[in-house]
Each structure stands twice: as C-alpha cells, then as structure tokens.
Design goal:
heterodimer; A: mainly alpha; two-stranded antiparallel sheet; B: alpha/beta; Enolase-like, domain 1; 3 domains; 23% helix
Chain lengths: 521, 433
Amino acid sequence: MKALRSIGLVLFLFSFGLFLGLFFVSDYTLTKEIFETKVKTEHQESLRPTVESLFGKKYSTTFSFANAIARVIDQVNKKFRQEQQWDKVIYDDYTAILTKASTSGIITENTALLFFLVFGVGVIGALLFILPKVSLELPGIKNNGIFHHALNNRGWIGVLIGTLLIVFYIMIYFYDAYIMNWIILVEPLKHWIYPQSESSQWFLYGFLYTFAVLVMGVRMLIKYRHSKYHIVRTISVMFFQLAFAFLIPEILVRLNQPYFDFKNMWPLDYDFFDAWHINMLTSAGGLGIFMFAWGITLFVVGVPVFVYFFGKRWYCSWVCGCGALAETAGDPFRQLSDKSLKAWKVERWLVHGVLVFAVIMTAGVLHNFITGTSTVFGLDTYTYLRRPYGFMIGAVFSGVVGTGFYPLMGNRVWCRFGCPLAAYLGFVQRFKSKFRITTNGGQCISCGNCSTYCEMGIDVRWYAQRGQNIIRSSCVGCGVCSSVCPRGVLNLESKDENGRFGQPVLLGNNHVSMPEIKSVN
Amino acid sequence: MREIVIIGNGIAGITAARHIRKRSENKITVISSETKHFFSRTALMYVYMGHMRYENIKPYEDWFWKKNRIDLVNDHVKDISTTERVLQLESGKTIAYDILIIATGSKSNKFGWPGQDLKGVQGLYSFQDLEKMETNTENVQRAVIVGGGLIGIEMVEMLLSRKIEVTLLIRENSFWNNILPDQESRMLSKHIREHHVDLRTKTELEEILSDDNGNVKAVVTKGGAQIDCQFVGLAVGVSPNVDVLKNSGIETRRGVLVNEYLETNIPDVYAIGDCVERTYELPGRKSIEQVWYTGRMMGEVVAQTICTTKTKYEPGPWFNSAKFFDIEFQAYGNVGNELQLDEEEFYWEHDGGKKAIHFVWNKNSKIILGINVFGIRLRHEKFDRWLREQKSIHFVLQNLESANFDPELFKRHEKEIVEDFEKSMFGIKSTVA
C-alpha cells in the first residue's frame, strides 16, 4: 500500500512536471494566412504595415512572441490616439488570438496525448496516492504532522505552490497569451463538449478548478470518511462545481443559450446587473428571462430563507464554487488562518467594505441601465466603479490573493476578508437564523483544535471554554471544529431561535454564578 | 485593594485569576516557572503530534493578561513565609501577598524502579516534559510506555504519530480497567491493538536497563521479559506537587489539605486544583481529583469566595471526557469498574466495536447513577440535570434521544439501545451483552 502511494506520487509529480514543462515547449510563427484569417478586415489595413515585419519570424518563447504582437498593436493604437482617431483604436485581444493561431510544436501535434499524460496520468497518480489511506489508517481525525510538514505549515513546498498559484492567477487574468500552451492543452475537451468552440483561459481555468475540486474532493471524502456530515457536503460541493459551474454553462452555450451558472448570485456575481448582462439575458428568450428572475430570486428570497433555516453554510460550504475549492483543495491549509482578534477586526472592515463597494457599484450600474446613461453624478461608472471593482475585487482579491495565498494564509482568505455575498449571508446568519454551534456544557478543555482548524479564523475556543454558543457571521458551517474536538464539545445545530444567544453557562460547581462577561473588544 | 498572589498558571490558577479580575479590582499576580503564559496542559500531546503549535494551545492571546491587569511572573517560588506573608523567589526577588492561592498542580509518579532516572526515561506532565520528549525520542525506533491511564495512552498516540513502535505495559487485565468496567475496557483494548500497539496486560515493570552511555536500552518486566527500547515513558499516575510548601507551615498530606471553602490551615491561604487534598468527604469523589474540570471549578469557587460570598466547593455530578485514538469517551455520574451490590447495569455495544454505552442505576430505586459513553456524544446539560433530579433509568432511556449531541446526519442508535435494554430486562439475553 505504501509502495502504491509512492508510485502515485511519482506519477502525479510526472504529470505536474509535464504540465509545467509544456509552458515552454512551443514555437510561434505568425504567417500572412493567420493574420488574414484571424484579424478582422477593418483592422487588417491599419495593422498590416507594422505586423508585416513579423511574418515568418520564428519565436521560441511565448513571452517574446506575445510581447512583439502587443508592442505592434500598442504602436498602432498610440498613433490613433495621438491623431485622436478614437474610432480606429483596436480593443480586440489580438495578442492572445494571434499567439494561439501561431503556436506550433508538440502541443499542437499531440494535444490529445498530452492531455491524457497530464490529466489522465495526473488523476491516476493522485488517486493512487490518496486511496490507499483507507487501508493504511483507521477512520478518524488524523492531523498528525501537519505543523511539521513543509506543505501545510508555510514551508518551502507551501511557498513554492503559493508562488506558482499567484503567478498562474496573474497570467490567467492579465496575460492569457503567455499560457497559450495550456489553453491549447484543454482544447480537446472543449471540442468534445462543443465542437465549434475554442478554448480560452477561462475554459482552462474552469477545467483546472473543477479538476482540483474533484480530485481533492476524493481526498476529503477519505480523510473525513468517519463523518457523514463531511461526506455529504463534500459530495454536494463536488456536484455543484462539476454540474452547475462547469458543465451546464458550457452546454447552455452549445445550445445557443446564455452562459449561466445557476448557483452563482449577486453580489458575488458582481456584474449580474451590468447593462450588457441584463440585455444578454432578457434578449435570450424565455430561458434568459428565467435566468434573470432566478438570479434575483436567489439572493432576494433564497438567501434569507435558507440562511434562516440552515445558516449560511447551505451556500458557503455546500454549494458555492469558491467554497468548493476551499473545502477540497484548500483543506490542507485550513490551519493557516489567522485567529487573532486583530485579524477579526480587519476582516469586519474589509468584507463589509467590499459589500458596500459592490452595492454602490451595482446602484450606479442600475442607474445607468434605467436611465440609459453611462455616468452617475457626472462620473463615468466604468472608469470609477466597474473597472476598479473588477480589477481589485474580481481579479486581484478573489483570484490572486483569494486562492494564490491558500498555502500562506489559509483556504478562506477571499471568503473571509473579501466576499460580499458572504458578508450578506453573514448578516442574516448573525441576526435572523436558527443556526448556531452549541457548546456541550462544561466539557471543553481549551485544547485549541477547534480554533486551529477553523478556516475562517474564528477563535471557537474562546466561546467553547466559557460554555457559550458560537454565533458568528463568518462561520461557514464546515463542521470541522466539531470533528476535531477530542471531547465532543461542539455541535452545529439549527434549533429554536429562543435561547440562541444564551448567556455563557459552564456546568460545574453549585452556586457559582458567571460574573458579567467583559467583552474582548 | 488586596494583593492576591497565585502560584501556578494552570487551569486552576488562571481560572481563579480571571474570575477574581471579573469580580474585583484587586491586584493579581500569577507566578509560574513552567511557561510565561497559560497553555492547555491537556493539549500538549497535540503539539508533539503536529496537530498544533505551542501558540495554538494558549487559550488567550498574549495581550490578554496586560489588558486584564493580571501580572505574570516567570519565576519559581523557593520559599513561603506565611507569618510575614512573603514569597521568596528563585531569582532572589520577593513578593508580598495579602491572599495566597496555591495552584501548583501535579508531578509524575516514580516508584523507585532501578534505572528510572536514565536518559530517555521520563513522564509527561509539564511543558518541559514535552521539550524533553522531543529530544528524547529523536531517532528512536522502539519505545515502552509503563502505565495504562490517560497519560499513558496519550504518550502511545504521540509516539505512533512519529512512527515509533510502542509497547504498552499495564498492570490490569485490560486497558484502564481500574477505572472502567470490563466491557468497555475490553473494547478499548481491542481498539488500541488495532492501532498496532503491543499492549501487554498484567505486566509490571521490574527495572530499566542502561547502555554504556547511561541511555535506556531495555526494560525488564516482573515476568522476566526483556523489551529492547530507546525510550521509556512512565505514566503511572501523578501526585500533588507540594514540594514548595515543606517549611511553610501549610498542612499537607499527599496534597495540600483544604476544607470545603478550599482554605488551608493558614488564614488567607487557599489551595485549588491538582495539588489539593480534601479533608472532607464528597459522595462519589476521591479526596484528590486531578482533572481539568475540577481545577477549573475550584478556581471559580475560590474567586467567588475571595471577592464576594464565601462559597463551598460543591461540584455537581461527576463528569469527564477523553479520547482514545479514534474513540471519544464521555462520563456522567459514576460508573465504577465493578458493579456494587445495590447497583444494576446495562451495557450496549455497537457491532463495529467503536461505540458503546453503559448505564448504572440503583437496583431498588431505579435512580440513574452514571453513564459511560463511547463513540456517541451526549449532552452534558441533560445528564447533569437528570443526575441532579435523580431521574430513573427508564426516564433516561425514554429521553435518550434528546440527549444526543452527535453531528447532523450521523447514524442514531437510541432505538436499538432501548430495544436491547428491554430484551435484557425481560430476561431475554441481549445479543450484544
């Protein structure tokens, strides 16, 4: 069994190494034919004089090629801007389009084989590494060595993976041409789902994301196989990621319907009310209108009702895509969240700040939609609201920081500090819900496992050791505090609202009253 | 404003300090030579096992003490003068007090075995023991733990987490059988063996053998068996740590003697926690109780006595908890290892051998006396109330479902338990007894 695990690890590292290696393997040659087929006719004339010099020139790295194209387009655009020929400025992403078309080499010749070697062998390797745990360890909490491991405790492996993730996210969001080899690598799957379509960085991202959720979901299922709660919720996030976030939107597009993730909602889905999005949905017939209504119903009715009955966990750790990644691929890093009071203060300012930002932006956008303008109080909403939000919150916070920092700051950085939907769900959970984590009498021994393994950085022990229910807006109800508690002290419950905010009660000596509890703030 | 000095920063001393601060503006000083800050002693094992770091087992952040004006002194008390009300510290400093609280905890037992002070032989109680265990177990392939109590099994788990093979020597027929009845003791023994522990029952330590460098190389049992090992854990219980009181005039026997108000024989000197020996009887409780919870309760009581109303140490119904590898344990009330003449019992065990429940009640009155439960979580609050209200075994069984504290979606067994109970009570032999 141990040998199997070693083989699995070797296979996985082989496929991961191959994946990284594929980044470097192609040649890039722009030809006249490519230029004429890929560039719109209206742009060909203005671009040709400068681009012509690149025809037939072979580049060996994606950087040099993509940069060369980008430079040329910049030159042309600069000239147009100087001459104030605004209508002629080119906004199309030709850097990526031309890089893709100009790529040649092993990646274009053997795409399917490489796809199998990377992802097929990767899955086999990962499963060989993960599955034998069933016979090597008895079911139960096994957190042995976590703080001694270079992956789980910000050691060199953690720092390396964090760096790779951060770089990857920056490229996905801002330099998609650089990762063209990987985009091409997943093309076979894209074609299988929808033959007429082309792979993009977002398809690559969605695929890798789902891949990670499923593979690491299996790991999660095995690690927590003694707990039916974890089994069910892990299957739930795996299902919602695969079906709702990945497959259904792709299938919808193939059926000529709008791309739509039925489980995503405003304000996490921050451009839901952008004019282009509303127009896209409302002009797409009955299904589009339904999608629009569904999206609104989810956050107007779904959130309060479900949070009232179950707490925000129904979304955050059972359905949400960000939650899906955090609860599967992110599980090895949950202990890295900051539990200090200071972190909690930062969290409240940040996450509510983002919610306010999202609300203001959406109000502006809706104002634009209704009035048919593009400004609010004379300010352009794209420049002052949508673009900064998309860049700072949508890309940098939720992506680069939110996931890239998993191995450094824990797996819920985004959910805790940035997600406006989590803030909204949290309000309801805090003020109007049946959900709480109950403390079992006086049984707490203050060991700290609950706080340590709380991915949201809640100091669970603070409450448990004084016999108080844990009611915190940030709690995503993952249930791990309850699982790691060695004394059976914590239980996630949806019960009568009465007595939810009970006074701290520690069972013990007769006639000892708990003195007034001073707040820590 | 009085100067309150507490010796010891464990759960008892720290609870006293916190509750005194909540109730008064007295000056509070806590002295400890173990660590600067309070940590959870019961969590030391998790630091060794890599579940947590030392920071994680500190229940309060370091700023907490200053904010709450609890002075922490990292020093060792050498001498106590109760006539002058002054403590002499190792560093040469002295500290005066108006009220003294002794919360010095325990120390590991050693029974004078040959070789018990060799390198690589140790107990596990203090933070220093943890550090020692870290160095003592470097490059160790095989270890022997002597003593099958809670600390013994913790040490076994710790060593196994580092892939060190372990032999566990216990005096009893099965694990913790001096506390637990045969049935659950047998179940746990099986579980321990399932984790590849070489569990040797009815085995006692004779001596520990040394190599040429003064390191442990083997143990010899009373039966004459020699077990090679590079580490020996002595986990044969703990005793009150009362060394510092020797010349103080404060009365001690095994522990510091206290009355029901936790007062010692000297006015304004109290003792709480592990180091205490009660001079009065409490039904169902030993005169020395070395448990986290009793330390905490005593801390609460003494704080209330000092600050507001004189309060007796009257712990409610006994409760305790532990975890043996993957099996959680909770106890409410008293279930002895042997059934008394006026007691009746019912034991249910799940087929998988990881869940069990053991009820004991009075034969005549049918009043519930205690319950041991394994692998199922039960609500403390319910059993505390039922025990105080002297509910009958029938009431408890009827309402068992309401006491379940297992996570949502977990399989429930109440129905099965009640059915088996009825079968066994009507003279039909239960299938699982």
